[in-house]
Amino acid sequence: MIKTDVVIIGAGPTGLFCAHQLGIIGLKCEIVDNLDKIGGQCIELYPDKPIYDIPAVPKCTGEELTNNLIEQIKPFNFNFHLGDRVQELKNENNKWLVKTLNGKEFETPNIVIAGGVGSFEPRKFPTKSAEKYDGKSVLYSIKDKTIFKDKSVVIFGGGDSALDWAIELSNSSKVTLVHRRDDFRGAPASVQKIKELSDNKTIDLITKYSIKDVKGNGSLESVEIKSESGESKVIKADYVLGFFGLIMQLGPIAEWGLNLDKKTIPVNTENFETNKKGIFAIGDICTYPGKLKLILSGFHEGALAARGCFKYARPDEKYRFEFTTASSTIKDRLGIKE
Amino acid sequence: MAKIKYIEFNGTEHEADVANGLSVMEGAVQNDIPGIDADCGGGMSCATCHVYINDDEWFRKLPEKEMGEDDMLDQAFEPKSNSRLSCQLIVSDDLDGLTVHMPEKQV
Description:
The complex is a heterodimer.
Chain A: E1 2-3, E2 6-9, H1 13-24, E3 29-33, H2 41-44, E4 50-51, E5 60-61, H3 62-73, E6 79-82, E7 86-92, E8 95-100, E9 105-108, E10 110-113, E11 119-122, E12 138-139, E13 152-156, H4 160-169, E14 174-179, H5 188-199, E15 203-207, E16 209-217, E17 219-227, E18 232-236, E19 239-242, E20 246-249, E21 265-266, E22 279-281, E23 286-287, H6 295-313, H7 328-333
Parallel strand pairs in A: 1-9, 2-3, 2-10, 3-6, 10-22, 12-19, 13-14, 13-19, 14-15, 21-23
Antiparallel strand pairs in A: 4-5, 7-8, 8-9, 11-20, 16-17, 17-18
Helix pairs in contact in A: 1-3, 1-6, 4-5
Chain B: E1 2-7, E2 13-18, H1 24-30, E3 50-52, H2 56-61, H3 69-73, E4 83-85, E5 99-101
Parallel strand pairs in B: 1-5
Antiparallel strand pairs in B: 1-2, 3-4
C-alpha cells in the first residue's frame, strides 16, 4: 500500500503539469497511465505533429512538449506507474483506496483524473468471427515474434506498425499485407521497402481490400477479404494481425459513480472537483460551460485542481499563494541553489 | 447556413440547420444527434466522426481531403472510398442539402 497525497490518472500533458503544480505547493503524487510511456495523446497520436498554441512556445511537437514537461517535474521525483490502469476506487474514512490492474494499491485523499478521452486500446477487427481467436491467432500487438516462424501471417493496416511487422516477419514467415487503399501512411522508407518486397515476391501485397471473415475449425485456417465492389478472396492464415491504431475507451472510470455527460465528467470551475469529494477531473475528460479541449486549458485546470487537493491533503494547514520567482520554499522544492 | 441531413446506421434521420463555419461534426454534436462521437473535438486525430457520403455527386462536390484525413480514416470503423471525417467538412451555403450516413459504430 502506497500512501500519497494525490493519485493522478493519466500521464498526458495535463496530468504532468498538475503534478508540477502539486510539487510546487509541497504535495506528493503518484501517476498511473495505461500506456507504457509518458505523454498521453501527445505521444500516442501526434508525437511529430507541431503544436502552435502552447502559450509562449510558438511551435513544438507532442514529443518535445512531453519531454519538457518531464524535465519540469524532475525535481520532485514522482513515481510513474506505466502500463497499468486504475481499476477500482473505494472510499474509507475520507480516504480513497485505489487498486490497479497490476495489483498496486494506493491510499490517498485525492484523485485527479486527467484521463484524456479514456484509455487507449487497439482497434479490433469489425468481424464477429475474429473474436473467437482474439489473443490466440488474431492479434493486435506482438509480444513474441518467434511464434510466427514458418507460418502464414496475414497483416492488415497501412501505418508504421503494419509495415514494420510485415518487413520484419517476411524474413521467417509467409507474409500477406492487406490494406484498404493504395497509399500508406507509414514512413516513406518503409513504404518503399514494402514495394520492393512485393515486387520480388517476398510478400504478397493486396490493396483495396479489407477483412470479411476469419475461418477455422478449432484453430484458424484462413481469412476472407473483400473489395468494396464485392469481390472476395480467401487467404490461408495461421495468424491474422490487425494494426488499425488505437481507440479511446472510458473503461473503468464509468463505474466509479461519477456524473457523466456522454464521455466527459462535469466539474466545477473553482477547483475542478467532480460530484465525488476528493475526485477531480481535468483536461479533455472534464466538461463545464465554455470548456475548450486545449492543452493550455488543461494546464489551468491542473493548477486549480492541485490547490483543491491541498485542502484535503493538509486539512490543518492553510494554503498560501506564492510565486516561483520569489518564494524560497518553492525554490527549495525545485532544488534550486542560490 | 445549410440544411444537413444525418442518417444513423439504423435508418433514423435527423435534419439540422448548421451555421456557416461550423463543421458537419459540430452540427451533429450541438444538435445532440447520435452516431458521431468526435472524441478529439475536431482535431483530425481520432476518426470517431466518420461518415459516408453515399451520393456520388455530393462526394465529388465536397472540398478535397487534406493531407492526413485518409491516414486517419485508415483507423476508422469500416472505412470505404466514400468515407469522410465530418470534422473536416466545413459548412457553407454550398453544403445546403448534404446528406451524411453514419457507420454502424465509431469505435
